[in-house]
UniProtKB/TrEMBL annotation:
Protein name as annotated: MFS transporter
Organism name: Paenibacillus chibensis
PROSITE patterns: MFS
Top-level taxon of the source organism: Bacteria
Subcellular location: Cell membrane
Signal sequence coordinates: none
Keywords noted in UniProt: Cell membrane, Membrane, Transmembrane, Transmembrane helix, Transport
Statement: the UniProt record of this protein carries the keyword Lipoprotein: no
Length: 439
């Protein structure tokens, strides 16, 4: 098997990956900030919005992922998903102009608009683009691929924080959503003419039909046959529960509690995260050398240390150090788990298993994390007047709770490590075939 990914495919990975991550960053950070600024200063809307979109995203990945496996095609799902993803990002911004009273109607409208956008985002990115990158890669280059996937959300966060902050500060939210949504739609149109499915990708159709194939991934024997993969999923879930305790509110925290402008908050996050990205290159070597457990341990320790520093800090130099530490943890664990997942996915069920990954990486963390945040903010936040309206503002307590939850990531890492060692040892005992040595 060839160890290289073609230059054209690398270009598509970066273009589609970055445009998708920018759009996800807008949802994960700016949607929340937009709701707080334009709809209501109530964390309940954000908690509902994050939870419902996570559930919808997961369902979309399962349904469309199974469909793409059965079709033996990823391209049409990528194109349609991205085009409509951008369209409905603009639609979400238009909720600013809808009536704000009664409050429950405004809340339902905002949550529904976010859910529709998330459905098409998961269709294009999670259910189709992610499996496509697995189709065109192999176990000997997925450390580099994981590094790209870890770098993209960081660059998207930097772009989203700095450039988005400048646009929002100058033009307000709706023009910002039009620009960003239009960009993602254009990328979807471009994919129609440039992207090709992996030549070896084949349609996998169960004789008993779609529903039987869809349900097959939920059987107990599927878990038993993929024990290492499921423990890695649990690692993902626990780490990102901690992440989702603080991340949806980090810009709100910097802006309202520490009284920073959107641009200053963006620069602070951007500088810390860019520095963290530099570690993806040495990490890729460790991952490709079969040492993902070591990288995950370093990631957890760095993330916890960074969050504790942020908890104790109000000065920019220390905040920058804390963001760097938390950023290193985020980048390295995302890079490592991306490669680890892709190496373990059953070849005939890659689209479906992206759905399972969504359960553990998006649905569970984005339901539990913001729910924890809601109670922390309700009982540990402070009431203050913002733009003439009373609201509840999150405090530094969020970061301490996030650090404590993140420490629990070490627990599922223990069985995952044992299964990984056993698999690697068994593979080393297998005879080497000539075709495996071809480049």
């Amino acid at each position: 098997m060839n160890d290289s990914i073609s230059k054209k495919n690398w270009l598509l990975i970066w273009i589609l990956g970055m445009s998708g991550q920018i759009c996800w960053n807008i949802e994960n950070s700016w949607f929340n900030t937009f709701v707080y600024a334009k709809i209501a200063k109530d964390p309940a809307i954000i908690s509902w919005m994050v939870a419902v979109s996570a559930i919808i995203s997961t369902l979309a990945t399962f349904v469309i992922g199974t469909w793409s496996d059965r079709a033996g095609k990823r391209k049409p799902f990528i194109a349609v998903g991205y085009i409509l993803w951008g369209v409905f990002t603009i639609g979400f911004g238009a909720t600013e102009f809808m009536p704000k009273n009664p409050f429950i109607s405004a809340m339902v409208l905002v949550v529904a608009a976010d859910a529709i956008m998330s459905f098409f985002g998961s269709t294009g990115y999670d259910a189709a683009f992610n499996p496509w990158t697995t189709d065109i890669s192999n176990e000997r280059n997925r450390g580099k691929l994981g590094g790209a996937f870890a770098t993209m959300p960081v660059l998207a966060t930097i772009f989203g924080a700095i450039v988005s902050g400048m646009i929002v500060d100058k033009f307000d939210f709706f023009p910002f959503f039009v620009i960003m949504g239009g960009f993602v739609t254009v990328m979807g149109i471009c994919s129609v003419f440039t992207l090709k499915d992996a030549p070896h990708l084949k349609a996998v159709r169960h004789e008993k039909g779609y529903l039987h194939q869809f349900a097959s991934v939920f059987k107990l024997n599927t878990v038993i046959a993929n024990q290492e993969l499921f423990w890695v999923f649990v690692i993902n879930a626990v780490f990102f529960i901690g992440f989702n305790i603080y991340f949806p509110y980090i810009t709100i925290y910097f802006n309202n509690y520490l009284h920073m402008s959107y641009m200053t908050a963006g620069l602070l996050q951007g500088i810390g995260l860019v520095s963290a990205v530099c570690l993806t290159i040495p990490a890729a070597k460790l991952i490709d050398a079969g040492k993902p457990v070591r990288v995950v341990c370093m990631a957890i320790a760095s993330n916890v240390a960074g969050l504790v520093i942020i908890f104790f800090s109000t000065q920019i130099p220390l905040l920058l150090l804390g963001i760097f530490g938390a950023g290193v943890g985020y980048v390295l664990i995302l890079q490592t788990l991306t490669a680890w997942f892709k190496n373990l996915y059953p070849e005939e069920q890659r689209g479906q298993f992206e759905g399972i990954k969504q359960v553990f990486g998006v649905c569970i963390p984005m339901v539990i994390g913001p729910l924890i945040s809601y109670y922390i903010i309700q009982y540990g936040g402070i009431r203050m007047e913002i733009d003439g309206i009373m609201g509840t503002v999150p405090t530094h307590t969020l970061f301490l709770f996030a650090a404590l939850i993140t420490l629990f990531t070490f627990l599922p890492l223990i069985p995952a490590s044992k299964l990984h060692r056993s698999r690697v040892h068994s593979a080393s005992l297998q005879p080497i075939h000539k075709e495996d040595l071809k480049l």
